[in-house]
Amino acid sequence: MISLPLVYLVLALVAYSSAFWYLLMQLMSKRHPHHGLISILLSLGLILHGLILSGDMLTLLGVNYDVFNLMSFTSGLMLLLSLLFSHYRPVMALNLIGIPVAALGLILGFGLSKSNQLMSENSLSLDIHILLSLSAYAILLMAALHALLLWVQNRELKKKQKRLWVNLLPPYQAMESLLFDMLGIGFALLTIALGFGFFTIDNFFAQHLAHKTTFSILSWFVFGILLIGHYRLGWRGQKAIRFTLSGFMLLAIGFIGSKFVLEMILGR
After folding, report:
1. Helices (H) and strands (E) in the chain, counts
2. What is the pLDDT of residues 64-92, one digit of tens each?
3. 0.90 exceeded by the pTM?
4. What's the pLDDT at 143?
5. Are 254 and 211 in contact (CB under 8 A)?
6. Binning pLDDT at 50, 70 and 90, where does residue 202 land?
7. Side-chain-facing half-sphere of 126: CA atoms under 13 Å
8. Average pLDDT, rounded, for the chain
9. Selection from 124, 114, 111, 119 nearest residue 201 by Cα
10. Local structure of 126: helix, strand or coil
11. Angstrom distance (rounded) from CA 256 to CA 139
12. Residue 32 burial (C-beta neighbours within 10 Å; 0-12, 13-18, 19+)
């Protein structure tokens, strides 16, 4: 008998695929995609994504923070934010990146998550801290990917013959403005997550948190300096790209590095 989560998975992938191919075909033919149709398809996919993820993460024993569940959560949140951003900036084409990322994260979370990876002793405050941290990470990951896209787009625009995919991208100015939207929101969430952690976790530098905390604080300083430089000194372009990638690299070392070592190598 086919399980309900599997039905949700198939329907979510159908919704994601339909939105992806419709958007791609419209952009390839230089027609304006119907925002309402894309929003409906992606909203349906995200709702089903959330139902599957909640079934995997929320258990009677606690919240399952398995690394593949975190990938599913992060990828779904990234697509949700991409959809929201595209409603007030002309960047609908960027969902062509967010959709396959969300689909891949959903598949990995559904197929590879481990039910025994639980943190049943967590308090509500610690769960809030973790979710805030994950949300900040998702947005700053989007910013890092966006910075790489800006770097490639800028290089291609300087050539006489642009590649086809470059023509599908939004205008460079809109892309750059969106980068700082992401950085501002991500920095605010990271600030709240760090502050919440310091005030709610008894021993912030214990339980394998020292490595993660140190790199998160270093990342926070890098992003803070970039935002101050942008709004006070007009920093943009290559300098903004370098700062964004450096800040996210520090965050990834702290977040993904410690999680991978503990779960995949040490088996904790």
Report:
1. 10, 3
2. 778 788 889 999 999 999 999 998 888 89
3. no
4. 94
5. yes
6. low
7. 14
8. 84
9. 124
10. helix
11. 15
12. exposed
DSSP states of 145-204 as a string?
HHHHHHHHHHHHHTSSS--HHHHHSPPHHHHHHHHHHHHHHHHHHHHHHHHHHHHH-S-T
Q: Are 8 and 15 in contact (CB under 8 A)?
A: no
DSSP string for residues in 71-102: HHHHHHHHHHHHHHHTTTSS-GGGHHHHHHHH
Question: What six digits make up the tokens of 63?
Answer: 């919240």
pLDDT digits (tens, 9 = 90+) for 115-135: 555 554 566 777 787 888 889
Look-up: residue for tokens 């300098």?
A: 239
Contact in structure between 117 and 225 (CB atoms under 8 Å): no
- Assign 220 a pLDDT band (cuts: 50, 70, 90): very high
In 3D, which of 83, 79, 100 has the Cα closest to residue 21? 100
Residue 114, pLDDT score: 63
pLDDT digits (tens, 9 = 90+) for 170-191: 888 889 999 999 999 999 999 9
Residue type, 265: I
Residues 6+ apart with CB under 8 A from 167: none
Amino acid at site 14: V
Q: Position of tokens 């941290």?
A: 133
Q: Which residue has the tokens 């950085």?
A: 183
Question: Residue with structure tokens 């992806």?
Answer: 20
